[in-house]
Amino acid sequence: MSLLKKTFQGAIKISIRNYSANTGLIKPPKILITGGLGQLGVECAKHLRGKYGKNNVILSDIIKPSTEIFNDGPYIFADILDFKGLQKIVVDHRVDWLIHFSALLSAIGEQNVPLAVRVNIEGMHNVIELAKQYNLRIFVPSTIGAFGPDSPRNPTPNITVQRPRTIYGVSKVHAELLGEYYHYKFGLDFRCLRFPGVISSDPPGGGTTDYAIAIFHDVLRKGHYECYLKPDTRLPMMHVRDALRALSEYLEAPNEMLQRRVYNVTSMSFTPEELADEMFKHLPDFTLSYKPDSRQDIADSWPQVFDDSEARRDWNWKPEIDMDNLVKLMLKEVKEKIVANGL
User: What are phi and psi of 264, to 5 degrees?
Assistant: First the structure.
């Protein structure tokens, strides 16, 4: 393993340039992103287009994109519940890598379980079979929500009892196990990262950890935030830049370096109170109140501290953005978004 680590950077470059063992062509991968208008999709497309070229990353969703997103690079309609439609996209665009972001998040999924089953489970069946049929490298994100109240919470190791109690978490455990099965049964190049709460300047999208996004929007617009979690609720978090860098580095890592197909990744853990204390250093006059709701029960079943030592060991994962830098970045990015949107 030490020899592999010494040649890690060179191995990554080789794996990117010669990603197709069947053809031997030296060219970047053609990447399809499903659920592209969710929290990670647009930023992920920008990140990967910077590495592989604008036309090699195809963003897709069932929603009409903004003019800005449409002009940024290839955008197509893709319904993950339409298997033949997905087949046509892979063939027509000669797709090599599939990044599957389509999913209903934790709090939204609890409000519409039948729809969450269709999108999160049936959709996963379609993309995993698609990847097998066309020999695609497939990335599926998982989550701290894949753990439950029987899991050790501080720290939560890579391999442990899971047993989540939300349909979102259940669907992610299903995705992890199905992907691992397809890897060992069929040789599918399946890759999965369990992300903590991912913090970006985009408006919150229905996740339990999204208070850490909403607080910046509400404080900068209204000077006050009412938090739906208790002040001492500790959860793992990371800025979107670290999340995308983890995704990119993991996708590029040579198969021989990966001892697992599913890894925990994280940057930090904090509570609403600790986040507010850091924000008070920059905005001393805002006010904060707490009114816990049903999302508190979800948070109480999730990890408090994520153990990502296996990702650090196998493919040299290391976060770059700490809590101080996260707050500075979010204040700057959310201010810019509010100004741009005229709010």
Answer: -75, 140
